[in-house]
Amino acid sequence: MDENKLNVNAAVTDSSNTNMDFTMLSNLLKLADGSEEFVLSIVELYLEDTAKLLKEIDHNLIEHDAKALKFNIHTIKGSSGNVGALAVIAQCTEIENQLSAGDLTGIEPICNRLKLEFERVKDVLEVNNLMPILGYLQSFG
Questions:
Q1: Quick one: pLDDT band at residue 97, thresholds 50, 70, 90?
Q2: What are the phi and psi torsion angles at 24 (to 5°)?
Q3: Modified residue Phosphohistidine is at which positions (predicted)?
Q4: Are 85 and 97 in contact (CB under 8 A)?
Q5: What's the CA gap between 124 and 43, in Å, rounded?
Q6: Alpha helices for the chain (secondary structure H)
Q7: Positive or negative, the Cα torsion across 102, 106, 112, 116?
Q8: CA 65 to chain centroid
Q9: What pLDDT band is residue 3 in, cutting at 50, 70 and 90?
Q10: What is the pLDDT of residue 6?
Q11: What pLDDT, on the 0 to 100 scale, is given for residue 53?
Q12: What is the pTM of this model?
């Protein structure tokens, strides 16, 4: 077995390996009557939109635009919930908590951790890794 490939069983049954809640993807599969294409399109939109929002967040930080930053973080948090990206949600929550205190100090390192967690989730959700996961989830659907 290729060591670079995701161990599907381990990934799905032990979310600490991937910081993902695969229940959300399973629910999407059920909602779509088992259509893997539907789930893939949702995931693709999530990955594309989140990458764009992370670039906007960089701009928000440069401009010290707390309002836009809060909006973009909240948007990422919500869409991450739809795909079960737990670590991304946790970072967004930490940023939201600090922003609600009206403090931009120390936000940049948290935003950098958010980007790192997104990259980890992205690796799991890439189509080559996601297709075996969806197949695994369907076998229990």
A1: very high
A2: -65, -40
A3: 74
A4: no
A5: 11
A6: 8-13, 22-31, 36-63, 66-83, 86-100, 107-125, 127-139
A7: negative
A8: 23
A9: very low
A10: 47
A11: 98
A12: 0.85
CA dihedral 90, 63, 55, 18 (to 10 degrees): -20
Please name which of 117, 126, 99, 123 lies closest in space to residue 54, comparing C-alpha atoms.
117
Q: In the prediction, which pLDDT does 141 show?
A: 58
Nearest C-alpha neighbor of 76 from the set 89, 65, 67, 86:
89
> Is pLDDT of 105 > 90?
no
Domains of the chain: 8-139 (1.20.120.160)
Q: Tokens for 98?
A: 């600090």
Long-range CB contact pairs, 77-83, < 8 A, 24+: 79/46, 79/49, 79/50, 80/46, 80/50, 80/121, 81/24, 82/24, 82/28, 82/42, 82/46, 83/20, 83/24, 83/25, 83/28, 83/42, 83/43, 83/46, 83/121, 83/125
